[in-house]
Amino acid sequence: MLTKTFEVGVIEILQDRRMQVREDTVIIEDGTELSRTYTRYVLNPGDDVTDKPQVIKDIAGVLWTTPVIDAWKVIEAKTRELPGV
Question: Residue 56's closest CA among 20, 24, 32?
């Protein structure tokens, strides 16, 4: 039987409290792993994580306090003021 699963392979917490996530897509046939591919994405403080795996929701709930989210909004606003951004 062929199965396809999605796993959170790595979660890195960056200095500015963003989460860099590596999601693994695993193809298994009769108990033997045939393929594993990776997708990476970054979540910013305050991003909607309702459709993410529970471990990401749990980390965001602890890491992304109101002061962290407010500080991230300031960083985003300053970035938008830069020419060409």
Answer: 20
